[in-house]
Amino acid sequence: MIVIHITKMLRYSFRSKDTILPTSIAPPRPSLFNLENIGEQLGLGKRKIDGSAKGIRMPNPIVEGVKNASAYTKWSWSILFIFAWMTYWGWRQCSYYAVSTSLACNGDMCKLSYQTAGWKTSEINLHRAQLLNTEQIRINRSGDLVDVSKYRGRDRRNYGFSYTLVYSLPYEEGESTVTAVMSKYNINRQRARSQHSKLKYYIEGTSPKLTVRESRDVTVGGVMAIVFGLFCMLITCLVGQFSDPVSPIRRRSSVSGMERHISRRARQ
Predict the structure, then answer these.
(1) 3-state DSSP call for residue 62?
(2) Contact (CB, 8 A) for 210 and 198
(3) CA 151 to chain centre
(4) Are strands 131-133 and 145-146 parallel, antiparallel or unpaired?
(5) Which of 76, 165, 191, 255 is the most exposed place for a label (fewest CB within 10 A)?
(6) CB–CB of 182/195 below 8 Å?
(7) H helices of the chain, where?
(8) How far apart (Å, rounded) are the C-alpha atoms in residues 225 and 85?
(9) In sequence order, what are the residues at sequence separation of 6 or more whose Cβ sits closer than 8 angstroms to the Cβ of residue 180?
(10) What pLDDT, in 10s, does the model give residues 3-61?
(11) What is the CA radius of gyration of the chain?
(12) Distances in Å between the alpha carbon of 191 and those of 91, 141, 171, 185, 198?
């Protein structure tokens, strides 16, 4: 009886002061207009959301696709990238080590152009009078001139064919004679003889124009890398898997969900 009487007295005292019992106080509910609470619930911290798209953070679809892809799909993309890089490396190899020597003449003026490994180019403007002579020569694998008169038989066959251009350059102290090997790589005997004849006719004044060019645009390693890379890329595209197939259960669930949505809209 005493406990009941004390409880009634406490209730009467709280009601007289227009208060609420501590045990009856409900925890504050998050309001739709309390943006700070919404930010905490969404995991965005205690910052306010301005209601624009700046507060929305969507996952990167590429990163999510890589994370969720199967091991077979990842390996297919990795192998395809490796062989694509090999093909590109082969093309760079051929382009970097491409060398050429050309002589273009029109009338009495000529332009001698060089391209060496590393995309380095140089040009020299010459007059017809500066072109002195041309000769057929034999060269070694390094492109240096070799006197093959002392060799016989098979030893002589080890050296390639080329031709030279002898021209003069004026200096303050006088003139300097330069001998340029037009091709530092082996060309066959017939081409060397034909190009030598064209150059000789122009130097003697018989031909009004001249265009000779010797180049090596590819390397063995570059060509092998390009061919092997393209072939392996083709095989990888035919055998590899570049997207994970949708399972029948997932496809069936998505189709049934769509049908339920359509039927619900039809009832409305």
Answers:
(1) helix
(2) yes
(3) 49
(4) unpaired
(5) 255
(6) yes
(7) 2-16, 35-41, 61-68, 71-96, 154-157, 189-204, 220-239, 248-267
(8) 10
(9) 101, 112, 164, 165, 166, 167
(10) 455 555 555 554 544 454 455 555 555 554 454 455 555 554 555 555 555 656 777 77
(11) 43
(12) 27, 18, 34, 12, 11
Contact status, residue 57 vs residue 45, Cβ threshold 8 Å: no
Instruction: Give the CB-side neighbour count of residue 209, counting CA atoms within 13 A.
Output: 2
Q: Give the max Cα distance, the chain.
A: 140
For 121, the 3-state DSSP assignment is strand
Taking alpha carbons only, the member of 212, 123, 205 closest to residue 165 is: 212
pTM of the model: 0.61
Q: Judge contact between 163 and 183, C-beta under 8 A.
A: yes
C-alpha torsion sign, points 14, 16, 20, 24: positive
**Would you mind telling me the total number of residues written for the chain in this entry?**
268
* Other CB atoms within 10 Å distance of the CB of residue 161: 18
Closest CA to 85 of 201, 193, 236: 236
Where helices occur in 44-70 by DSSP H, the ranges are: 61-68
Q: Are 159 and 150 in contact (CB under 8 A)?
A: no
User: Which residues lie closer than 8 Å to 115 by C-beta, 6 or more apart?
Assistant: 98, 99, 100, 101, 121, 215
Helix or strand or coil: residue 213?
strand
Q: Tell me the pLDDT tens digit for each residue of 79-138.
A: 999 999 999 999 999 999 999 999 999 999 999 999 988 889 999 999 999 999 999 999
Residue 221 tokens, joined: 């390693």
Does the CA dihedral 221-222-227-229 come out positive or negative?
positive
Name the token pair of 43: 């995991």
Give 110's strand partners: 105, 126
